[in-house]
Amino acid sequence: ISKGTAEKIVSSGVLPILAQVLRKKSPLTSQVTLLVAEMAREAAVRERCIEAGLVTALVPLLNSPDQDQLLHTGRAIGRICFENAVQQTQLVENGVIPRLVAIMQQYPENDPLVNVCLLALCNLADVDAAREALVEVGVAEVLTYQLKRAPDAERRHLILEVLGSLGESDALKLQFVEAGVPEALSEMIRTLQGGSDTHDLCSIKVASNLIVTLLLGDESMQKCFGEGTGMVYQDVLSWLQSANTELQLSGALAIANFARNDSNCVKMLDLGVVPRILDLLEQHVAEGDVSVQHAGLSALRNLAIPASNKVRMLEDGVTERIRTLLRSDMPPVQFKLLGTLRMMVDGQEEAASVLGKDEVLLARVMEWCEAKDHAGVRGEANRLLAALIRHSRNPEVIHTVIKADGVQHLISMATSEHVIMQNEALVALAIASAIDIEAVQEPFRDADLLPTLQKMLDDPVVAVEVKFSALGLICSLANSSMLREQITSLNLRDTLSKLSAHTSTKLAKQADTVMVVLSETA
C-alpha cells in the first residue's frame, strides 16, 4: 500500500469498522489484519490506528492458533506501536510479553514469526515492566535456542540486541548464565573467528562485550569461571592471544571481572594467566591500542590484590615487564600503570625497595607528578611516590627520592583536597625523617615543610586525622637541630597549645605529647 493509499483509507473513516471486524471472529480476520499491517508501514497513519482502537482489537489475536494470523498480528502491532513509549507500556500491561515468548516456544522453526517476536522484544526491552515480566517466562532458554540456530547475521544481531538490553537486569543476567547464554555466545565467536566479513566482526564485538557484561554479576561470574575449568573462562583466555583487537580487549576486561575475589585471583595465577596478559601488553607498547593496555593493566591490578599473588607476580618479573609501558604518552595507560605498580608494592618491602631505587622509573614518576592536564595521573604518581617510601622504609629509596626532587611533590600532596592522599604523604614524610633526618632536613627546610604543617594545623577545615598525622611528623622533625630552630622561629608552640584544647581528645593529647617532646629536645 502506498503512502497516499494508506492515508485515503484512513480518511474514509473505515478504521473503527476494521477494529469491529477484528473484535468479532470472522473469516475476514486474517485479511483485515494483513491490511492493517500494510497500512501501518506508514508512520503518518499510526496515531489514527491507535485512536480507532485497533491495538486493543489486535492484542487478543496473539492467542490465535493460526501461524499466519500470528505473523500479521505481530507485524501490525509492532508497526503501529513503533517508538511509541505510551503504547509500548500499555502492551506490556496487557500481557503481550508472555505471549511473545510462548509463540517462540511453540513455533521455534517459523523464521518469519520468530523474527517478528524478536523485533517486538527488542522494542519493548527498555520498558521496566517488560523486563520484570520476562523474568517469569523463561525467555533465556528461548533466546539461547534461537542464537544457536540463527540463520544469518541479521537474526544474530537482533538476538544480540535483545540480550544486550535485557542483560542489564541482574535477575535476567543470572537466568541467561543458567540457560547457557555465555557458552552459546562463546561458541558463536569461535565459529565466526578468523574471517574478515564486517557483519561477522560486528557480531564478534557485540557478543564478546555481552559476555563481559554478564560477568558483572557475582553469581553469574562465578558460574562462568567454574574454578578455572569453565568453557567461557577457557575461551576468554584464548581471546588474549587473538589477532582481533576487539577480542583482546574483551578478554582483558573479562579477566579483570573474573579477578574480583581472592580465591579466583589465586586460582588464575596457578593457571598461568599473568604471562598471557603481559604478552598482550607488550604487543601494544609501541603505537598500541590504549583500551587494551588499560584493560590489561586493570586485570593485573586486580590479580595483585591478594598478598600471596603479589609475591608470586614479583617473582615472575611482572614489574620489570610492565616497566616498558613507562614510555606511554596516553594518560589512561599512565593512570592504570601507576595504580598497578602501587598495588604491587602494597605491603611488599622488597618490591618497594627495588622500584624505589630505580632512577629511570622515578624520573618518569616525577614527570607525571606534574601532569598539568590530568589530575588522575598526577594523583596516582604522587601516591606511588609515597607508597615507595611507606612500604620500603629503606634509606636508599629515601636518598633516591631526594635526588629525584620528590620531596616537594610529597609536601604538595600533603595539602591535597583528599584526606587519604594527605595522610599517605604525611606518613611517608614521617618515615623518611625517622629513618634519615640528616638526609631530609635540608630538602624539608628548602621546601617549606614546617610552615606548610603550621598552616594545616591552624586551618579549622583540615580533617582531625590529617592534623594527627601532621603532629606525628613534627615529632620526628624535632630530632633535627636545623628544623628545631625553624620550629622556634615559627612560634609553633602557640599553634600546639591551641590544639591542646581541641574537642578531639585524641588530637589534644597528641598536641600535648609534641609539646613535651619539643621541651625535651630544646
Keywords:
single chain, 522 residues, mainly alpha, Leucine-rich Repeat Variant, 36 helices, elongated
Assigned CATH superfamily of the domain at 1-137: Leucine-rich Repeat Variant
Alpha-carbon Rg, integer: 33 Å
| Average pLDDT score | 93
Structural class: mainly alpha
Q: CATH architecture of the domain at 1-137, please?
A: Alpha Horseshoe
What name does CATH use for the topology of the domain at 1-137?
Leucine-rich Repeat Variant
Distance between the termini: 101 Å
General shape? elongated
CATH class of the domain at 1-137: Mainly Alpha
Describe the structure.
- This protein has 522 residues and is mainly alpha-helical.
- Among the domains are: 1-137, Leucine-rich Repeat Variant, CATH 1.25.10; 419-521, Leucine-rich Repeat Variant (Alpha Horseshoe).
- The protein has helices spanning 3-11, 15-23, 29-39, 43-51, 54-58, 67-80, 85-93, 96-106, 111-124, 128-135, 139-149, 153-166, 170-178, 181-192, 198-214, 218-225, 231-239, 245-258, 262-270, 273-283, 290-303, 307-315, 318-322, 331-345, 349-356, 359-369, 375-392, 395-403, 407-413, 419-435, 437-446, 449-458, 464-477, 481-489, 492-499, 505-521.
- α14 packs antiparallel against α15 (198-214), α21 (290-303) runs parallel beside α24 and α26 packs across α27 (375-392).
- GO terms for molecular function: guanyl-nucleotide exchange factor activity.
- One of its GO terms (biological process) is animal organ development.
- ARM repeats lie at residues 95-139.
